[in-house]
Amino acid sequence: MNLCGKTSLWVSVAILAEASMLLGNDSGLLHFAAALGVPTVALFGPTRPAKWAPRGDRHRALRAVDGCPCISWHPRAQCSQDHACMKAIRVDTVVEVIEDQLNRRYHEDILFSPSSR
Prior knowledge:
Elements: H1 9-17, E1 22-25, H2 28-35, E2 40-43, H3 49-52, E3 59-62, H4 84-87, H5 91-103
Parallel strand pairs: 1-2, 2-3
């Protein structure tokens, strides 16, 4: 579902709270999804996943090119290469990672209090 530009931020967050997974780019909504515990697959171009990607086993970051000249530590890096690093991310790789994320079974750590007898 693509709702870009069609909802407010808070409506977007409410929708994310009900999502099974988010596929997106390095953006604020990616981090809202992560904060809500929604599994994510994030596509990275000129920014570095090592610095900006959500952490944890529920989150996967994809980047195709390590030596892309536009890659930067700055969060608003601009690409001078016609987005070559984004275009190089293979669709079949994205589909494979999405399927893996959707098929995973995440468990929450549950603390049980001792029963009183």
